[in-house]
Amino acid sequence: MNFTAAYRIFTALFMLIVTIGLGMKLNDFTSVIYVFVPLLLMLGISFMPFFKQRKLRLILFSAPIVILYGFGFYPWLTNYQEVAVSSSTSTLDFIIIPVWATLYGAGFVVLHEIGLGVARAFDCGK
User: Could you read off the pLDDT tens digit of each residue along the chain, which spans 126 residues?
Assistant: First the structure.
């Protein structure tokens, strides 16, 4: 099994765990979109040649999403009803956390590519 296939299996299992863990707590279609769009992006990029060329690009893109979902967003989602009652910014947090996770992942890939370009520029000068 190659790395890309293992990545896709991991992403699918992660989506399944999130789905089972949330159960039927998300009854609003908009909230389902915010939960699954970053996860579907993780799965979708594994089919793009740009990301398939280097394994590190896949890891850099997906790491912030997995970390923020696993340690911050997912526990918060399971208590969404209680948080929504007690916090005036709960809906805003619900939108912002997945967006920031995706932006962090894309930013890490961009920084990685800039670093590779700089390394190649210094290497070509020798």
Answer: 788 888 888 888 888 877 777 665 666 666 677 778 888 888 888 888 888 788 888 888 888 888 887 776 666 666 666 666 666 665 666 667 778 888 888 898 999 889 888 888 887 655
Phi, psi of 26 (to 5 degrees): -100, 100
Structure tokens at 2: 């190659």
- The CA distance from 56 to 44, in Å, is 16
User: How many Cα atoms are found within 13 Å in the side-chain-facing hemisphere of 106?
Assistant: 9
Rounded Cα distance between 11 and 62, Å, is 9
Structure tokens that stand for 71 in this block = 């340690």
The CA–CA distances, whole Å, from 34 to 2, 10, 29, 31, 92 equal 30, 20, 9, 5, 11
